[in-house]
Specification:
Number of helices: 5
Strand content: under 5%
Order of helices and strands: HHHHH
Helix content: over 70%
Radius of gyration: 19 Å
Number of strands: 0
Number of domains: 1
């Protein structure tokens, strides 16, 4: 019976790296999906150039997407003539 966590193939590593860089996916989510420890992915990131900046860019992309959703909702509310003050507790 095998022990520990499975190792990742080169293709899986490439896929994980691109999903983090391009889509801003979270390391713990990817680790769970691929059945590895998050630390394995963090180590993989740190061994490449700009590992910490990759994580920072990923985090900024997620924050940007969340802000765009909020702004989009505000614009829709404004176009529909809703009172933003009442909806958002202001």
């Amino acid at each position: 019976m095998p022990r520990g966590y499975p190792s990742l193939t080169a293709e899986q590593r490439q896929t994980i790296m691109s999903r983090i860089k391009e889509k801003g996916e979270k390391v713990p989510d990817l680790a769970k999906e691929y059945g590895v420890k998050p630390q394995n992915i963090y180590s993989m990131l740190s061994s490449t150039t700009g590992g910490s900046s990759t994580l920072e860019i990923s985090k900024l992309k997620r924050e940007r997407d969340a802000l765009l959703q909020i702004v989009g909702k505000l614009i829709v509310d404004q176009k529909l003539g809703k009172k933003i003050i009442n909806r958002y507790g202001g």
